Each structure stands twice: as structure tokens, then as C-alpha cells.
Amino acid sequence: MSGYKIESGKKGESGMMLGPTLETQRLVLTPPTAADFDDFAALQGDERVMRLLGGAQPRAVAWRTFVQTAGVWAMYGFGFFMVRELRTGRFVGRIGCHHPEGWPGTEVGWALTHAAQGQGYATEAAAACIDFAVDQLGWTEVIHCIDTANTQSAAVAQRLGARILRVAPLPEPFSKPVDCWGQTAAEWKARRG
Known about the structure:
Blueprint (H helix, E strand, L loop, with lengths): L4 E7 L5 E7 L3 E4 L6 H8 L2 H4 L8 H18 L3 E6 L5 E8 L8 E6 L8 H15 L5 E6 L4 H9 L3 E7 L7 E8 H8 L1
Antiparallel strand pairs: 1-2, 2-3, 3-4, 4-5, 5-6, 7-9, 8-9
Helix pairs in contact: 1-3
């Protein structure tokens, strides 16, 4: 289904290995580097995008989220990728593997810029991330934590072959129940052929 290729680890400004680069038909997914921060901060600060994803973040808070994202890559070997159009280099969002302390499962999550929504980018990039999670990380289940009001993300989850597995609360500071869409690794592998 996803048709992606993976390149070995990318090095950051410090020379430290950050993680792989994934490439799909239209997108390139890379671990975050300092050069990505302005685009990331704009995404995190956009209320239209973030209203069902914890709320818009001021730039200083987005910076802390951004360095946290990079730190997860350094410590655990997975995290959110920064996603850009392959042809133009235009930033379209963050999509990747997410499993913080207290989370209701191993998640592939996404947030796209307002301008990039409705073009199939979330489905395309998330499929590559699910492949990465199942094939490289060995995850046996992949979920997508989606606010019940987020019909756009629910539609992406359905296109990925997910179904609502359970309703679960997110840990503080969120403390709100969400629909956990998902599927097992075996179901994903059967679906992608």
C-alpha cells in the first residue's frame, strides 16, 4: 500500500545520527533538524490545525515540543518525521511514531499544515510510517489517537484500514478520552500485501 523506500540514518548539525529518511511517491520524511524549526513552530501555532490536537502553541512552547521531538529520536530511535514535498521541498507537516509515557499504545500520528490538507499526504506518509513501525521497530499494534470531533483524521485512519479498537484517556495534561483507531501488525501486513 505505501510503497516507500528507506535510507539509513541522517546526521544532524552536531554530527549525531538522528534516524532514517523515508521517501514515498510524493514526500520525503526526515527526522527533525534545527533548520525545520520555523516550519514546525508555524504548524504548532496554527489554531486551525491544532484545535483538536491539544491547541495552538506559542513559539516558545513549540520550541520545547520540537526539541523533545528530536530528543525522542536520539533516545529511542523513532519519533515524528518532518514531512516535505519531494518535488518542491515545501513543508507539509509532522507525521511519525509516537509512544510517550502513559500513552494508550504505539501510535502513528499526524498533523498537516492547513495548505497541505485534502491532498492525500497524511495517508501516504502515515502508511510509510506504519511500515517503518512494523518492519523496523517491531511494533505489533499501531494506533491513531483521534478526538471524536476530528472527522478528517478519522477518515485518514479508515483509509489506512484502521478501525476503532478502544476508547482511552490520554495522560495529563490532556486527560481526555480519545478514539484509538488501529490495527495489528499482522492485519497491516495482510492489507499491504
